[in-house]
Amino acid sequence: MSKYADVYLCPILEENIPAYKKMATAAGKVFMKHGALRYREYIASDLDVQDVVPFPKSVKLKEGETLIYAAVEFKSEVQRNRAMKAI
Q1: Which of 9-18, 33-42, 48-57 is predicted with the least confidence, judged by mean pLDDT?
Q2: What's the whole-number mean pLDDT along residues 24-46?
Q3: Cα–Cα distances in Å, from 47 out to 38, 42, 60?
Q4: How far apart are CA 35 and CA 20, in angstroms?
Q5: Of 55, 70, 72, 76, which is least surrounded by CB within 10 A?
Q6: Which residues, including other chains, have CB under 8 Å from residue 51's CB and lie 6 or more apart?
Q7: Among candidates 80, 75, 69, which has minimal Cα distance to 1?
């Protein structure tokens, strides 16, 4: 199990998903090269959730936007800090 993770919530226009996927693939390679244990990106769907505070309400998505959830896992915060400094 990872000890430390950076998590990003990124609202993007749905029409930009293909370009975002290309950028995310390149970014993932950079994170892994600098010591990340895992890099994952998720595109949100079914965002009309009841009885909890869904991400879109906290991020305030605009019409035509969707939400990207990205997580970069590291062995430790020290390793994360080294990686981010190198990147």
Answers
A1: 48-57
A2: 91
A3: 25, 13, 12
A4: 22
A5: 76
A6: none
A7: 75
